[in-house]
Amino acid sequence: MKQTLNSTSLSSAAAMAVRILFAAVAAFPIVFMMVSSLKPDQQIFGDMSSVAAFLPIGNISLDNYAAVFERVPAARFLINSIGISAVTVVLGIFINSLCAFALSRMEIRGKRVVFTAILATLIVPFQTLALPLVWWVNQLPYFELNGFSLEISKGWLDTYQVQIIPFIANAFSIYLYHQYFESIPKELDEAARIDGAGWFTIYRKVVMPLAGPATATVAILTFLPAWNSYLWPLMVVQSEELRPVMIGIQYFFQLNVSWGEVMAYASLITIPVVVLFIAFQRSFINSIASSGVKG
Amino acid sequence: MTTTQLPSPGRRLADPAPAAPPSKPRRRPRHLREQISGWGMIAPAAVLLLAFVFLPAILGFGLAFTNARLVSPRPVEFVGTDNFARLFADPVFWRSLLNVSYFAVVVVPVQSGLALAMALLINKKFRGVNFFRTIYFLPVVTSMVVVSLLWLFMYRKDGLINELLSAASFGLISGPDWLNDPATAMPAIIALSIWQAAGFHMIIWLAGLQSISGELYEAAQLDGASRWHQFRYVTWPGLTHTRTLVLVTITIQALGLFDQVSVMTQGGPLDSTTTIIYEAVRSGFKQQETSYASAISLVFFVLVLLISAVQRYLTREKD
Questions:
Q1: CA gap B128, A186 in Å, rounded
Q2: Of B48, B159, B284, which is closest to A131 when you measure between CB atoms?
Q3: pLDDT tens across B212-252, in order?
């Protein structure tokens, strides 16, 4: 605030103009996508040379969306992606925060080596792991409860768990929680221990309730790649009923692409993420900005 | 393996928690029960990381020296450095290396600069700051696959980008067929990549900006420092760690270019947009040559390690 006092109103107006310009550049493709999803193809191309490209005017309908549900089992894909993302997020929050809790607040021999090894995994890009990982998950045993007998078969390819389990543990989530836990006074643990609380109780009753912003950040940062995953399901999922939403895009690459339908499907799989993000954005951006990723 | 993309974790660990008073009780005796429950809490994440990161990494390292295929009746044999000899003799590999370097050389400075500008614009509280923060971050929450598809449509000869260019120049410019021209395909991919990812690094810069104490700015203002001098002598030195983090993460992300190419150009036209990872996936998945793909991945990994080590050395604290 101090700065605005000795700066002229002219320069703050200039700053606002730049802000609006950046916002326009950031938003125009997304607005164009959502607006086009409501128009027939002919009108999309007709409107392109004028500002009408960004306005829901003219022949507006949900026809493209109806066509999408006919062409693609979109409802099935949405349910799959919601399930896969939700399970990954919930288990990820639990397992990564538990690990960060122990590394941050307990006296454990060798924890520094473990923490360094965990952070080292950040430098391995997923794309380089993907191919050996396909080979490896195909060797893993698969337990299935069939009626009253437990059946064991080999290979995780073409299942739900192959889309979930490899992505639960995440070094970046552990790092975020660790940073956040370091800022919570350790005297709280001491006090709880004097009252006879065990470590898990301290984790559940003392530390986690204070770590809300970190949890919001980890939730979004786990949800996004889970919802957006494309390369991995492309390699490990064959059955249509197990596919996530991003794979649905392939259904549109045929002769005579209907761009209105493509835009409708793209909007359909983007809107849930945008809504979720807007709902959580305050705690997400603030928590990263104030406590999360400090260099 | 002490190199990580996050600055000096060891040092941070040693830092006392900011809220803790200086008179910490002396180190408690290490109770056995604390050891056991501690390891029990670490174990689930550690086991999963071991199984799904360390193991495949080691596996990939080993497979690079064999003739393994995804599905093959022949037994896997050790073939020494054959895959690497083949790789280094392949002109497409060198082309992909060149393309990725081109991409990184443009994207790293431009994207980190724009992200810093955006962070500075929304650092201070003002009416509507949350609105701008949300809008700037919106492209990041949009999947790269959706973004690629959308821009594929916008980059057509008769697409939105050319219509906008034409309108802005009063009809003087009629843009190229962006993705089908070897000269413009990579610049087109660069533009959309920066558009999609700048918001993420804006957040990292913002974290750095927020950690600089407001008192420093007040002191600088008392000394009559101009806006530029405040940036030069307070903001910039305060962002040392953040700079390394942004630089290293953007570089790794740039070298790993894949989604955009896979959706938009499939490496074409004339190999002008093919990348290291795209080649690895093409040979490993489409041609099922697991060993050759592992060799490419290994070369990529060594490259990432080298470049981030050099960057850390160059941006180290000189004290």
A1: 37
A2: B284
A3: 878 888 888 888 888 888 888 888 888 887 888 788 888 88
Burial class (CB in 10 A: 0-12, 13-18, 19+), B224: exposed
Structural domain including A8 reads 1-61
The answer to the question of residue B21 being in a domain is no
| pLDDT for res A291 | 46
> What's the CATH number where B183 sits?
1.10.3720.10
Residue A120, pLDDT > 70, answer yes
Q: Once rounded to an integer, what is the mean pLDDT over residues A111-123?
A: 87
Domain count, chain B: 1
Query: Cα separation of A202 and A196, whole Å?
Result: 10
Q: What residues 277-306 of chain B have any CB closer than 8 A to a CB of chain A?
A: 277, 280-281, 284-285, 290, 293-294, 297-298, 300-301, 304-305
Q: Residue B264: which domain range? A: 91-314
Percentage of chain B exceeding pLDDT 70: 88
- The answer to whether B202 faces chain A, any CB pair under 8 Å, is no
Nearest to A57 by CA among A46, A71, A67: A46
The count of structural domains within chain A is: 2
pLDDT at B161: 86
Same domain assignment for residues A96 and A215: yes
The average pLDDT across B11-34 equals: 52
How far A151 CA lies from chain B's nearest CA (Å)? 23
DSSP secondary structure code for residue A156 in this structure:
-
Q: Are both A53 and A80 inside the same structural domain?
A: no
Q: Are residues A122 and A252 in the same domain?
A: yes
Nearest CA in chain A to B254: A125
